[in-house]
Amino acid sequence: MGRLLAGRYELDDRPLASGAMGEAWAAWDPKMQRRVVVKLVRPLPGRQPNVPAVFREARTAARANHPGIVTVHDVESDTTGDWFLVMELITGQDLSRVLDSGETLAVATVLDWSAQVADALQAAHDEGVVHRDLKPSNLMLTESGRIKILDFGIAGFLDNASADSEPIGSWPYMAPERILGSRGDARTDLYALGCVLYELLTGRPPFGDLSGFPLLAAHKDTVPVPVGKAVSGLPRGLDELVAALLAKEPDDRPSTAAHVRDRLRELAAEPPAPAPPTPEREPQETAPPRPPDARTHDRPRPQVPPSPTLKNPKARRPSAVPAGAAPPSTPPAPDRARRRRVLSLVVGVVVCAVAVTLLIGYLQDPRKLWFTPIGAQGYFAVSEHTAFLPGPANGTVEARDTASGELRWTYRTGDTTGSVKVEAVAGGSVYVVTGEGVIHAVTAATGERRWTEPADGKAGGYRALAVAGSSLYAVSNEEIRALDAVSGEHRWLRSVRGGAHVAATPDTVYVSAVADQPGVEYDERDADLYAVEAATGTLKWSYSTAKPIRSAPAVYEDTVYIGSWDEQLHALDAATGASKWTYDAGEPIGSTPAVADGVVYVMTQYGTVIALDARTHREAWRRNARKYGTGGRAPRVVEGVVYVADGDAKRIRALDARNGAEKWSRSIDTAGSFSDPVVADGVLFVGVIATVHFTAGDPLRRTLIALTTRP
Question: Is residue 695 part of a domain?
């Protein structure tokens, strides 16, 4: 046995499960001589639970005596201050594992399970208990085929622990009112049930692979694809029920879980809707014309009316001439021939002119969509069909349409240094760091200020930002600070010497340092990578390389990849920081690697691009380019293409991710260096710094260019 909790419950050696809300342990209760489950609950850092509310929630949940609800035996705190609930131990598998198996579920089975859940919810709602975190992993399929709901009272426990914090729950199943800060009611559980029902039928949640703030925005504003369009053969009326459960307004959802239960049982007894009839096709000598399809280039031909001045020689003649009317006059044959020759000549000239224009445009710039001046730092971000970039005027940020470059808004930070960096876009906000080290959170849609975080005298102020979940992480030379991404409220602070780059996942923040210039003296901290617990700011581990780390790491599954000036790519265990392997690139690595489909892509500081197996570091291919000086930039991998920007070569390249073969390249004659490339909406964005001055003393010319990625 492991830990003894509250002097009574003997925990097993390993937890059954671990998540954002806590850990579940199988345990032995010697007093009652039975096996139980102990759920250790984690309130948010720095917040203490409201003890009376905790007991009230647990007692109320325990009163919901129903075979579909896991029984709560006790709620208690340990001498260490940990709060936990004690529940009955059941065997089976939760529905998230059923979904992960890839098994196609029978519609009748899905309706039966969902009706069981609705029946159990009604019993809980009758006692005034709202689950608030219904999801597949909280629905246990027992060996007898019954569905039992786990974790009643947990979300309420945490809500009471931190009433003014972000909503507690699982974002893929979170009702819009919870996102907006309401504790919700029984209809909140019905929305979550709608999400679960949708996923059981289709194999994916209503909003697919969306995560983070874009997912929350979808819950609030986007209507999911009707389930009947994703799955055929469903009973009539199921589409309507799922849509009602997923209504944005609680008042538009079914009034009770009992109503949902009864409707599901009715639908289970109905036959599936017939498939749409397939029209019989008569034999034809040639294939019939295809209807327009958004996936092809076929379009209906426009119906062009005949010219009012040139008669259509194939125009249908009237069947008869009215009595007494003169026959229609026709021009003499030579006139018709001359007009046809003139028309042909005009059309030919126009076609040639258009062709020449297109050819000149292609030869001059076949890929450029638009370009615009960019601010001194050149850090920009792209999201939701909008590019956010430092404006050419001091202290400004601009939002421009990704397709056209059209200016949408300009935001003024008030910074006078001329150095503004757009560090991140998430959850409808743009996060900016000024040259004075001040953070600005700006509404992405309108350019309105949400909040600011001053530098507060820190040396150099904040230098880099990262967003994960509902938190914004900011690093300076002295510290890393966690802020609420929506409100800017402080969450925790940790001293980290020399922080300059930051990357974050939902559970870990990674901070690295950098020397000012290659080859100069540097401190030991310039070669350190720190991993910090995202929830608390506690240091998990640190890792040192032989020479400075000049970029943020990339995290893929359970591995952290970081390059160093020591010419090595390091693969580290994300949980412990232990080295899994190192790869000798033979050249310094000063940019963040890219990882896609199990392959790590690295660009060295001399411009060599390398593709490695992410697990074994076996080299898949290596593109040995000529020496590019110190222009190495982070590659971007999108849909099987690796995009790299070679500074001293003045060239942007698109490489085949499978073998490194060049698909296309684009020369930028004025380039002295590039920013990291960014790809979004079929557009490749690169910041360019020119090699020439306008006049002595003027800053280098900087431009953001937008190129199409399509062949």
Answer: no
